[in-house]
Amino acid sequence: MPDHHTTYFIQSRPAPSQPWRKVPGVHVGWDTKAKALEKLAYRREMQPTWEHRLMERITTITEQPTDEN
Fold it and tell me: What domain of life is recorded for the organism (predicted)?
């Protein structure tokens, strides 16, 4: 049965016409949504003219026997 791990990260853009991107130099992700929301609120406070959104990354790990040939 697959094992799932969820992390959260922030994407930002200066204007709706610009592509979303990760904030350079910021932690790759947070394991709890509460911590990520805290960081999102801070980011919005620091850059109020930009758009910011919270992203969720779900990693699935599947372990299974493999062919030894």
Answer: Bacteria
